[in-house]
Amino acid sequence: MSVVVAPEPGAVHRSRRAARVGRSARRLLAYTVLLAFSLYIMGPFAAIIVTAVGQGWFDGRWLPETWTFKWFTFARSLADLPALLTNSLVIAGLSIVISLAVGLPTAWALAKRQIRARAFLIALILLPRMVPPITIGLGVSREFYNFGLVDTHLGVAFAHSILIIPLVVLIMSATFEGLDDRVLEASRVCGANWVYTLWFVVRPLVTPGLLAAVLFGLITSLNEFTLTLLTYGPRTITLTVQTYIAIGQGFKEVASALAVILIIPSLILLIMIQKQIKPENMVGGAKGL
Amino acid sequence: MVTTRSGNNRVVGSIVSVLGRVRNTRPSTVLFLAPGIAYLGVFFVYPMFLTVQTSFTRNNADGYSFENYRAILGSSYYWDVIGLTLILAAATTIASIAVAVPLALVLRRRMRGHGLVRVLVLAPLLILALISALGLLIIWSNTGWMSKLIEVFTGANVNVDYTVHGLIIFYVWLYAPYTILTTLAAVEAIDPAVEEAARIAGARPLQVLRRITLPLSIAGIRAGSILTFLLAFEAFSIPLIAGGNHRPLAVVVYTEAAVFENFPKGSALAVVMALIAIIVLVAYQMTFSGRSRKESPA
Fold this sequence. Notes:
The complex is a heterodimer.
Chain A: H1 9-53, E1 54-55, E2 66-67, H2 70-78, H3 81-112, H4 118-130, H5 133-147, H6 153-177, H7 181-189, H8 194-223, H9 226-229, H10 239-249, H11 252-276, H12 280-287
Antiparallel strand pairs in A: 1-2
Helix pairs in contact in A: 1-11, 2-11, 3-6, 3-8, 4-6, 6-8, 7-8, 8-11, 10-11
Chain B: H1 2-23, H2 27-55, H3 67-73, H4 76-107, H5 114-126, H6 129-140, H7 145-154, H8 164-188, H9 192-200, H10 205-234, H11 237-242, H12 249-259, H13 263-295
């Protein structure tokens, strides 16, 4: 003898409308959060661009009085930009080559070979990313001073590799683990030697991982400040160091103009990366956790 | 010549075979690992040894002593520096969680425009920290947009130039993305059915958040927080240009070694700093490694 109590028609209507109002209020709140966060992140860059092309931005004005490109001319005369870019790219290229040469065999062994002290080995390889860079940097600058590596491209690249190798090992050992042993076996059974297998079977399969490792290496090298500051010299000034010098000199406008020029490689990387890899993967590499 | 080379070969061969036997691994595996181990030795272990060794020397005296460590631990100035560094790192971590959780809860709903925001989260990671710092200095300066906005809305005049809270604001902008990304990954891994079940059982939205969503994503929040904490603890370039008289450890190490040319004392401070970082990391691992395994079977 169950009695189904039908709610009044009006009540249903009211609760539906309340739900709809609640939903749109929540949507509004959500979009506010997204918009606020976007502005919060983009604000500094917008400020740099406006400073770089503005003149007379004083007295708490919202925007500069007039617009000008003269800061860019100043920035070009202040710093030898082509040389800076060359230095940064040569150092980044060298450090990536070194890191791959050292990191790839290690990653292969970790992924494909039986190793007793595996966990210990991984911890050891990640250790350089857990110690503060300044602590390594002091010793590195001492060592490089003794061996004449200070103010050489190779020297700065060696220093950057200390931080890039752990990334390469992390990314590539994960990539190699995903490589099916049966594919390698099939290649061998069909009579391919190991060089052929490496180039025509392994290389195409690991290219995405390799690309990620190279991109992370590039970002790390271009952004590295502490180790660069302790190993650079007049001949190896990088973009990062020049930005620091420009900010230190206190000309916000010139430093901003320089920053606008320097930011372009990073933006290109940002766009490339967005298509290539999942952001979540970036985090693990940062501290090797 | 020939004998030397073959002698070298024999030495290398015996080392390889000994290592191979010790680890009970194939000799070729040892060869694979050799470049990595050698690099670690030459460019990490040896420099670290140099730093530690230097920390026991003195600029104007021979021999080794604990003088630098005694000077550091006996001076209230250095204790204040260590305290400031830890406070900066802790405050940055807490503020980052406060940014990360609401943002992750919004982003997981995949509304229109969420893809763009996901890319924006990466910007502080990919763009030169110093360039970002310049932008932050401009936008948060006394006459910058942020200060003006705050003045318009609250009437309060905030001054962040060369202050501790200014540094925290800059640190959060730079290092919160790590917490955001791991929190987002954790939140998006939650099965919506679990929250649905709680809702059907009569839980109010805030109860669902507190009892279901947050406990299920706490491992992700934690993983990002330790990264944010360590990066804020080790921050160097930002406080160097934006800290003014507030100098955290990394800046003091650099000033001591490179500006005052007291390499031994700088090295001792750097060793203290590394020890604190390692203690924090080990404590984190020991506290949570077992627990996170229990929380998620993966």
